[in-house]
Amino acid sequence: MRRMTARPANAHQARLLRALRDSGPNSRAQLGDETELSRSKLAVEVDRLLETGLVVADGLAASRGGRRSHNIRLAPGLRFLGVDIGATSVDVAVTNAELEILGHLTHPMDVREGPVAVFEQVLNMVQKLRDSGVADGFDGAGIGVPGPVRFPEGVPVAPPIMPGWDGFPVREALSQELGCPVMVDNDVNLMAMGEQQAGVARSVRDFFCVKIGTGIGCGVVVGGVVHRGMTGSAGDIGHIQVDPEGRQCACGNRGCLEAHFSGAALARDAEAAAREDRSVELAGRLEAAGRLSAADVAAAAAAGDGVALDLIQEGGARTGQVIAGLVSFFNPGLVVIGGGVTGLGHHLLASIRTQVYRRSLPLATGNLPIVPAELGPAAGVTGAVRLISDHLFSPA
Amino acid sequence: MRRMTARPANAHQARLLRALRDSGPNSRAQLGDETELSRSKLAVEVDRLLETGLVVADGLAASRGGRRSHNIRLAPGLRFLGVDIGATSVDVAVTNAELEILGHLTHPMDVREGPVAVFEQVLNMVQKLRDSGVADGFDGAGIGVPGPVRFPEGVPVAPPIMPGWDGFPVREALSQELGCPVMVDNDVNLMAMGEQQAGVARSVRDFFCVKIGTGIGCGVVVGGVVHRGMTGSAGDIGHIQVDPEGRQCACGNRGCLEAHFSGAALARDAEAAAREDRSVELAGRLEAAGRLSAADVAAAAAAGDGVALDLIQEGGARTGQVIAGLVSFFNPGLVVIGGGVTGLGHHLLASIRTQVYRRSLPLATGNLPIVPAELGPAAGVTGAVRLISDHLFSPA
DNA sequence: CGTACTTCTTCCTGTTACGGGACAAAGACG
DNA sequence: CGTCTTTGTCCCGTAACAGGAAGAAGTACG
Predict the structure, then answer these.
(1) B160 touches chain A (CB under 8 A)
(2) CB B329 to CB A360 under 8 A?
(3) What tens digit of pLDDT does each residue of A154-165 get?
(4) Which member of A19, A260, B97, B136 lies 3.0 to 4.6 Å from B78 by CB, making a disulfide possible if both were Cys?
């Protein structure tokens, strides 16, 4: 299949492409309404896009009362690849240019095995997707890694949980493998972009997105744009202090949020409770599985286990405490809670909400929804394809 | 004097005006270099600006090796007014279009006396400045108030420390009085803009500016633009919790930063120490003045008083603790510390730095200057005139 | 002092972008 | 079948714009 070589030649074409991406196939007339381009200009630019093959005609549009219009859509053969490397798993997905997921694979994998092993796994999964027929080649790829990234170069910098990745040229390597443009970002930023593209944050311009997985991170969106900070480490809230006399954290400090609540901390606490026989429910699960995870705590809580509920409640309170501070500082229009522990569901959310609404000023919380993420495991890969398509659908 | 009626007609003119504002009188050639406009375009736009009277010719520029150029400068008669209403004082300043302060008055005043009284005071001071001859009328005014503002309307909303101001049409009222455009913002945001315009933050695009005065607030600048948040309360960090079992705060919660450290809290603590005879130095000052302020603590610390130093050290640690969290979240390129208590000087700064560098990740703090504000009492008014000039020097 | 070279400004022209009117095409509606 | 609406195309006048040419006003140097 011929791959996308052309790029929008100007800002107008870029706007048209994004409009087509976000609202699907569209008639010229509707496009004109949306982008507020004059008819002549629209005709010229659409014709050029048709020439380059980025968009194609696609049957007739529904009539709006007069002559029927021909639909325009992004070339149906375009394919984007989204890769989400988590601490303990890898997600790979293929989408069309409208960012609809055509194929999605997940594989458990420890990121600490290093970039070479992980890349091998990713390329394996990509091959599987190729074999399944959803894609031949790719026009662009986005990839997220669980640590800070020097964004312009697409290189992880000083990632705490993934030694061996520091300085590894992720962008360059993947681009070489796939033969297409690649963009790299923090996995949490991608989650935020995913929710902004296709999830709960679709119409919000200032929000943040807390991801509670193995660790805790936070994607910050200001004016519709991801805020990455000076060194790409914005949103790194896992090591904010929640208790001066709190637990020792791997980072060397005391009382970090992550030490008190995260997928890893929760599992540890649950196992401790099980061993100390404080919870029959958890003890049984530990017996059965040999170890516990956040999912076990969720299940125990759903079964009414008091200890599990307490763990969730306290974790939510800790998280809420931090979020309350950030809400005061940032005054967002929405807070999204996502990540592996979203299985903890309503209990966690309620606990967070209580804390935030109690601790932040009414002016900031008055109209502040705190909601669970909508996309689940697809958020990361959706954000990844959004990232690369934003890049490609922008004027050169 | 004829007042500015014209506004830049397009983005190019706006850019030219801002360039002239920020780098002073300039030759056409240099302007061309700075704004990267073609000679023809530059000539046309400059001519139009000359016609409208916004800029004037101003003698010959220094030669750069060939024919000398005529200088262009912003009309010397343009006058902006900056008003900074603090919790306990009012600042009023007049600047020219290059935002150089031509006259500056300060007057102690309790904002709780309400908008009518404060406005009367402000207008009084304005009249004094007028009488001194630095200005006749004004082409625009910026005004800062110590509380959240609904920015587009220029109206304070639910300000905790200034009851009676809620909903008062500050913008409308001042505009009526002065007969010129007015913009209103939070005083802390203005301080940040001031430091960005003429202080330490001149070349930084992402930073925040912590103002420790009667209360504590924080101006957040993202990509060179002040971030005001959804309801205009961004940066309201005074009520972030620093100690779950901490002091009771006026807001109803426990352990707010402001309850533990701020101009007001510091004075209270110092008086307590004086009464309990823990510090001879402070007791003496209390005796002399009848009450203590942050300045007294600063003086006592300078004299080597241990209690005063401890107070500063602990306050700095509390503040640093909060800032550390915000640094992790936001990853700024600079942190500015300002406000009334900057008199506390190096001790405070050192204490804050220690805490931030210890508690935030190296990636975020590695190249993070934490510096005192440069402009002192002029920051607010400078930010205010910057605000209005940004507004006026933008395409209609 | 004169000549060569720079820099700066103005004038001019060809190109491109753009908006909107006129008109044709295609369907909706009665 | 006729009329109305919507859509797409063509076309033209206007404005924006870049860059060349030439003149004005300096400097550098013999």
Answers:
(1) yes
(2) no
(3) 999 988 888 899
(4) B97
B114, B82, B113: which is closest to B97 by C-alpha? B82
Domain that holds residue B118: 80-196+378-392
Answer whether any strand C atom is within 7 A of the Cβ of B39: yes
- Whether A251 and A386 map to the same domain: the answer is no
A312-328: average pLDDT: 95
The whole-model pTM stands at 0.93
Q: Distance (Å, rounded) from C-alpha A191 to C-alpha A203?
A: 16
A260 touches chain B (CB under 8 A): no
Which DSSP symbol is given to B366? T
Distance CA B211 to C1' D10 in A: 63
* Chain B nearest-CA residue for A321: B241
Q: What is the pLDDT of residues A42-65, one digit of tens each?
A: 999 999 999 889 999 888 877 777
* Chain D footprint positions (protein CB, under 7 Å): 4-12, 16-21, 23-28
Q: By the CB < 8 Å criterion, does A252 face chain B?
A: no
B238 lies in the same domain as B167: no
**Regions in chain B scoring below 70 on pLDDT:** 1-2, 342
- Helix B306-330 and helix B294-302: axis angle, to 10°? 110
Cβ atoms of A81 and A66 closer than 8 Å: no
Residue A328 to residue B362, Cβ atoms within 8 A: no
Based on the fold, state whether residues B50 and B101 are members of the same structural domain. Answer: no
The answer to whether B183 touches B154, Cβ cutoff 8 Å, is yes
Q: What is the pLDDT of residues B311-370, one digit of tens each?
A: 899 999 999 999 999 999 999 999 999 987 767 778 899 999 999 999 898 899 989 999
Rounded, the Å distance between the CA of B111 and C1' of D19 is 59
